[in-house]
Specification:
- With 132 residues, the chain is an all-alpha fold.
- Helix content is 43%, strand content 0%.
- It contains 3 helices and no strands.
- Helix 1 runs antiparallel to helix 2.
- The radius of gyration is 38 Å and the shape is elongated.
């Protein structure tokens, strides 16, 4: 049902855009809806009335369908489908952080001290101090 309404809403939107674009504006605009383009079938005033009524009907349909779609989506909305409600990608959940409650971490090995006289690296010699 929702998919059918979305497709119908798309068609109404495209028709509304087309009707608005062919209307003659105060400054002339595209001027497609003028009496010259209609081949004398309707007068300029009749064309303007037809386009104005068509715009009003399409705008009413657009708003009505938008409200119906919003109400239909509201009923199924509490499942956390918002952009900010999405869980982070799996790679972001593996970042190190504090352990969760109740989780015990293994004990770290105790540091060992070298025995006296063992091979310890020699301390580097201090660089000679230049004398002037």
């Amino acid at each position: 049902m929702t998919n059918v309404l979305i497709i119908f809403h798309l068609f109404v939107t495209i028709a509304l855009i087309g009707i608005v674009l062919i209307q003659r504006s105060e400054g002339g605009g595209l001027g497609i809806g003028s009496s010259q383009g209609m081949g004398g079938l309707m007068s300029g005033r009749g064309t303007a009335n037809l386009l104005t009524r068509a715009t009003a009907v399409l705008a009413t349909l657009f708003m009505g369908i938008a409200l119906v779609l919003a109400l239909l989506d509201r009923g199924a909305g509490s499942s956390g489908r918002g952009l900010l409600d999405l869980s982070p990608p799996p790679a972001a959940t593996a970042l190190p952080g504090p352990p969760a409650k109740g989780v015990t971490l293994p004990a770290a090995p105790a540091p060992t001290t070298p025995a006296p006289g063992a091979n310890t690296p020699a301390k580097p010699a201090a660089p000679p101090v230049p004398t002037n």
